[in-house]
Amino acid sequence: MLLTAILLWSLNLTVTRYILTHGFRPLAYASVRYGLATAVFALFTLVAERSLRIARRDLPVVVCAAVAVWVNQLAFVYALKETTASVVALVLGSTPIFAALFGLILQTERLSPRFWLGAVISFLGVALVAVDSGGELSGSLGGILLAIATALTWAVYSMAIVPLMGRYSPGRISAVVLGLAWIGIVLTGQGQTHDQDYGLGWQVWALLAFATLGPLVLTNFLWYRALHRIGPSRATLATNVQPFAAALFAVVLLSEGITAVQVAGGVCIAAGILVARRRPVLTAPRSE
């Protein structure tokens, strides 16, 4: 289950990059995809639990999480529009470091000197990935900055839902949080959604269905079941493979170029996380 989730997340970057370069405008794509995902999560949860109710005391946390997802999706689609999927994949490997830093801010983490060494190594890796940002292969610096924003906002979301995970099912959290985020996405992207040409061919729509039902819906349930079966330490350690798998998919399927410096940056990001890890820093299933 864990490996299936990791492969689906990894493949999603390549699929989304393909969709955005074959006619779908970024915010129109996000609006359609999140609308479909919200409907699936809501239907599943209502059938299984007969309720989407969230206690009033948890509403501020839910709203915070939804805002984080909303900003995350804006950054995600434009990062993949502006730069390559392989570069975005490597930068997203820094998400656990951001999650730990937010844990420090919220006083839920006590970070050792070993963590700070790992953080420096990881951020050095991000800098290496960005070294060739002006080149043809790696895309624009703006795209890399958006990828960093994607990692940062996903870390915020992951930390925000921690208190909710003990009280609600993954399906209920996803239905409510993603639904609120979808409203923000629709309002932001209403111009693109209205002007979008939807006659893009069955291949693009098939890939959009995959990007919704696979990396966004199915992985949610696989991730939490894997955590229950094998524990968070082994599960989160395995996710370090994801940036490299995603970059490999992009290079093979999209014929993207990736430089030795960028590979070295990805290695630094992963090495920094391994050095910094004292106990697992859980991140939520990705909804990119």
Which regions have little confidence, pLDDT < 50, spanning 5+ residues? 135-139
Order of helices and strands: HHHHHHHHHHHHHH
Please give the number of β-strands.
0
Sheet with the most strands?
none
How large is the share of residues in beta strands? Answer: under 5%
Count the helices. How many? 14
Q: What's the number of structural domains?
A: 1
Structural class: mainly alpha
Quaternary organization: single chain
The N- and C-terminal alpha carbons lie at a distance of: 19 Å
Q: Give the averaged pLDDT, no decimals.
A: 83
What is the approximate shape?
Answer: globular
Helix share, percent = over 70%
Radius of gyration: 18 Å
Structure, described:
It is a single chain. Helix 1 packs across helix 4 and helix 1 crosses helix 13. The radius of gyration is 18 Å and the shape is globular. Helix content is 76%, strand content 0%. The protein has 288 residues and is an all-alpha fold. The protein has one domain.
Helix-strand layout with pairing:
Blueprint: H1 2-20, H2 26-49, H3 59-82, H4 85-92, H5 95-105, H6 113-130, H7 141-160, H8 162-165, H9 170-188, H10 190-195, H11 202-230, H12 232-238, H13 242-253, H14 260-276
Helix pairs in contact: 1-4, 1-11, 1-13, 2-3, 2-9, 2-11, 3-7, 3-9, 4-7, 4-13, 5-7, 6-14, 11-12
